[in-house]
Design goal:
Distance between the termini: 18 Å
Helix content: over 70%
Largest sheet: none
Shape: globular
Radius of gyration: 24 Å
Strand content: under 5%
Structural class: mainly alpha
C-alpha cells in the first residue's frame, strides 16, 4: 500500500468514525436528558467537564509516543522504539498515580466547590470516581497502545475500534436507561466501554506492530529527558488551545449579559465542530511527517506542506462558505430567532477556522521535524494576542469584537508566523505557497457562494432539511471547480494511480 493510499484510507475512516460519534451523540443526548432528568444530566455534564482538565496530566507524552514510533519506523530502529516505549510506559503509570491522588483531593472538596445538593452528594462522588477512573486513571497508561498504533499509521484500525465501541456504548446506554437504571449504572457502562476499547488497542498493537516489546529492563533514563523535552512544548500548545477555547465566553460574561454568552456559545460550538471535522484529515499527517523525517525524505515533507494543504482546505472552505450564505437561517431553524445575532460571530469564527487549516498542517510539519519549541512559543503569543484584542474590542464591538480578536490572532500568528517559518525551513517562498494554496479556497469558494446565494434568492428555505438541500448544489460546484482548476495534472495522476491500486487490491482480495 502506498503512503498516499494509506493516508486516504486513514482520513476516510476518520470521517466515518467522527460521523458515527456525532450521530450517537445527537440521538443519545436527548434520551439521557429525558430518562435522567435535568439535574442528573447537569451533574453528568459537570463531572465530565471537570475531569476533562485532569486529562492535561498527559503532559504531551501522547504526541511524543506518535512522533517516536513513526520516526523509528522511518529509520528502521526497532530497539530504540521499544526502549522509548518502555520508558514512557513507566511515565504513564506514574502519571496515573498522580491522577488518582488528584481525584482523591478533588473528591474531598467537590461538593463544596460546586454546591452539590445534599441529596445528590453521594451519587456525585461515586460517579466522579467512576468517570475519573475511566477518563484519566486507566486511560493514561492504556493510551500508550493507542499512540503506538497511531504512530504506526494503523489509524483505520483505531477508527474501526472506536466506531464499534461508540455504537455499543450507545446501545448499552439506551438499554440500561430504558430499563430504569440511573446515573451510576450509566457511568459503569461508560467505564466498561472504555476498558473494552483499550484492551482491543493492546491486542492490535501486539499483532500489527513488528517486534513490539515493552519491558522494565528496557527503560532508559536518557530517553525520559528526551521525551520530556518534546512533550513539554506540545503540552504548552494543548494548554494554550484549552485556554482559548474556554476564555471567549468568560470575556463575554465579564462585559455583557448572560444572554450574550448563550448567543456566542452557539456560534462557538458550530465553529468548534467544523474545526473537529476538518482535523480528521490533518490528524493522520502527524505520524507520516515523523516517518518521513526519520527516513530523511525532506522532498516529500515539502510536497506535504504545500500540495496536501490544498486538499486539507477543501472541507473547511466548503463549510465556511456555506456558513456565509446560510448561517443565519441555520441558526434560526436550529435554536430559534433569538439567536440570530450569532451569525456575524459565526462568520468571523468560521473564517478563522478556515485560515487555521494551513497552519495546522504547517504546525504538524514543524512539530514532527523537531521545531516543537517554536510552535509552543507561537501558541503562547497567539493566546495573548487573542485575549488582549478580545478584551479591547468587546466594549465597542460587543460579540463581534471578541470573535474579531480570534480572527486577527489567527492571521498574525497562524498564517504569517507559523506558515512563514515552515516555508523557510523547507525551501518554499511564502509568495509561492500562497499562489499554490490560496486559489484552492478562493476560486471554488466564490463559485459555491454565488450558486448558493442565487438558489436561496430563488427558493426561500423553511427548515434545516431544505437548507441542507439548498447547500448541496454549491458544494458540488465547489468540487468540480476545485478539480478542474486547482488540482495539478501530477496530483490527478497520483490520485488515479492510488484509486486504481486500491481497486485492484480489493479485486484481488475478492478473487
Amino acid at each position: 500500500m502506498t503512503r498516499t493510499l494509506r493516508v486516504a484510507i486513514n482520513a476516510l475512516t476518520n470521517y466515518g468514525r467522527f460521523a458515527i460519534a456525532i450521530i450517537v451523540f445527537f440521538l443519545l443526548t436527548p434520551f439521557i436528558i429525558d430518562k435522567l432528568g435535568p439535574d442528573d444530566f447537569g451533574l453528568w455534564s459537570l463531572i465530565f467537564s471537570v475531569i476533562g482538565f485532569l486529562g492535561l496530566l498527559d503532559l504531551g507524552f501522547g504526541t511524543a509516543v506518535v512522533k517516536y514510533v513513526a520516526e523509528c519506523k522511518g529509520a528502521g530502529d526497532v530497539e530504540r522504539r521499544n526502549q522509548l516505549l518502555s520508558t514512557l510506559a513507566i511515565v504513564y503509570f506514574a502519571l496515573a498515580v498522580i491522577a488518582a491522588a488528584g481525584v482523591v483531593a478533588l473528591s474531598l472538596f467537590f461538593d463544596r466547590i460546586f454546591a452539590i445538593p445534599p441529596n445528590q452528594q453521594d451519587k456525585a462522588l461515586r460517579v466522579l470516581w467512576i468517570i475519573a477512573t475511566r477518563a484519566v486513571v486507566l486511560n493514561l497508561p492504556l493510551s500508550l497502545f493507542r499512540g503506538i498504533l497511531f504512530g504506526e499509521q494503523k489509524i483505520h484500525l483505531l477508527n474501526l475500534v472506536q466506531a464499534v465501541s461508540t455504537i455499543l456504548y450507545g446501545l448499552a446506554a439506551w438499554f440500561i436507561l430504558d430499563h430504569g437504571f440511573g446515573l451510576i449504572t450509566l457511568a459503569w457502562v461508560n467505564l466498561g466501554a472504555m476498558v473494552i476499547e483499550h484492551i482491543a488497542y493492546v491486542f492490535l498493537a501486539y499483532i500489527y506492530v513488528r517486534d513490539l516489546k515493552i519491558s522494565f529492563s528496557m527503560v532508559r533514563g536518557e530517553f525520559l529527558k528526551e521525551a520530556f523535552s518534546f512533550s513539554l512544548f506540545t503540552f504548552i500548545v494543548s494548554v494554550s488551545a484549552l485556554i482559548l477555547l474556554r476564555t471567549d465566553p468568560i470575556i463575554v460574561k465579564l462585559f455583557l449579559p448572560l444572554s450574550a454568552v448563550a448567543v456566542y456559545t452557539i456560534a462557538l460550538k458550530i465553529s468548534e465542530y467544523s474545526h473537529l471535522l476538518t482535523k480528521q484529515f490533518i490528524n493522520v499527517l502527524s505520524p507520516l511527517v515523523a516517518e518521513l523525517k526519520g527516513s530523511g525524505e525532506d522532498e516529500k515533507i515539502r510536497f506535504l506542506l504545500v500540495n496536501v494543504t490544498k486538499f486539507a482546505l477543501v472541507p473547511a472552505a466548503v463549510l465556511t462558505v456555506a456558513g456565509y450564505a446560510l448561517g443565519r437561517e441555520a441558526i434560526v431553524f436550529w435554536v430559534g430567532p433569538k439567536f440570530a445575532a450569532a451569525w456575524p460571530v459565526l462568520a468571523l469564527l468560521m473564517t478563522a477556522m478556515m485560515l487555521a487549516v494551513p497552519q495546522m498542517v504547517a504546525s504538524n510539519v514543524l512539530t514532527m521535524t523537531g521545531h516543537h519549541k517554536f510552535t509552543a512559543y507561537a501558541a503562547i503569543v497567539s493566546m495573548f494576542i487573542n485575549i488582549g484584542l478580545s478584551l479591547a474590542l468587546v466594549r465597542p464591538l460587543n460579540l463581534v469584537g471578541v470573535a474579531l480578536g480570534t480572527l486577527v490572532a489567527t492571521v498574525i500568528v497562524d498564517v504569517v508566523v507559523i506558515i512563514g517559518k515552515a516555508c523557510r525551513l523547507h525551501g518554499v517562498s511564502l509568495g509561492s505557497y500562497i499562489r499554490r494554496v490560496g486559489p484552492a479556497a478562493l476560486l471554488p469558494g466564490a463559485c459555491q457562494l454565488a450558486v448558493t446565494l442565487a438558489l436561496k434568492k430563488w427558493m426561500v428555505p423553511s427548515s434545516l432539511i431544505q437548507l441542507a438541500l439548498l447547500a448541496l448544489p454549491g458544494v458540488v460546484v465547489y468540487g468540480v471547480v476545485f478539480w478542474l482548476l486547482c488540482v495539478e495534472p501530477s496530483e490527478k495522476l497520483l490520485l488515479r494511480q492510488n484509486v486504481l491500486q486500491f481497486s485492484n487490491r480489493k479485486t484481488g482480495q475478492a478473487g
